[in-house]
Amino acid sequence: MSEDTPEAAETEAPAEGSVTPEEALEAIAEGEELGGRNIDALYNVKLDVRVVLGRSRMSISELLELTKGSVIELDRKVGDPIDIMINDRMVARGDLVKVNGEFIGVALREIVKDFISGT
Fold first, then answer.
1. I need a surface site. Which of 21, 36, 58, 64 has the fewest CB within 10 A?
2. Residue 92's domain spans which residues?
3. Same-domain pairing of 65 and 102
4. Is the domain of 7 the same as that of 19?
5. Overall number of domains in the chain
6. What values do phi and psi take at 41, rounded to 5?
7. DSSP-assigned states of every residue in 5-56
8. What pTM was estimated for this model as a whole?
9. Cross-strand pairs, 37
10. Same domain, yes or no, for 27 and 67?
11. DSSP bridge pairs for 93
């Protein structure tokens, strides 16, 4: 396996003194330093951010019947807030917005209180 493949990056051991995304989120939420290391070092930690429009369940037979143009019904209504997830943890809700005419973004509506400790 080549070292420039995504699989190689996922299996590499963390470098000594490095911080995992989970440690970074926890430390930021708690306002701590990590083992005496400066919290500023966390600003370059990459996190997986997902914007979840909705969910749907379907059987394998329904999945196999999908073709170009098929519509998958989601569990949300138009105008409902969408979920913002960081490393599989919901941290906020927001609304879809148009950015620079042709792109979409998310305008944050609320920060999930469970994400911030002590609230």
1. 36
2. 48-119
3. yes
4. yes
5. 2
6. -65, -20
7. SHHHHHHSPPPTT---HHHHHHHHHHT--BTTB-GGGGGG----EEEE----
8. 0.56
9. 34
10. no
11. 83, 110
95 and 116 in contact (C-beta within 8 Å)?
A: no
Res 3: pLDDT: 44
Instruction: Based on the fold, state whether residues 9 and 41 are members of the same structural domain.
Output: yes
What DSSP state is assigned to residue 84? E
pLDDT of residue 45: 84
Structure tokens at 51: 């914007």
Bridge partners, 96 (sequence order): 106
Using the 8-state DSSP alphabet, how is residue 28 labeled? Answer: H
Cα Rg, the chain, nearest whole Å? 19
Q: Are strands 89-99 and 103-111 parallel, antiparallel or unpaired?
A: antiparallel
Q: Are residues 17 and 70 in the same domain?
A: no
Q: Are residues 26 and 60 in the same domain?
A: no
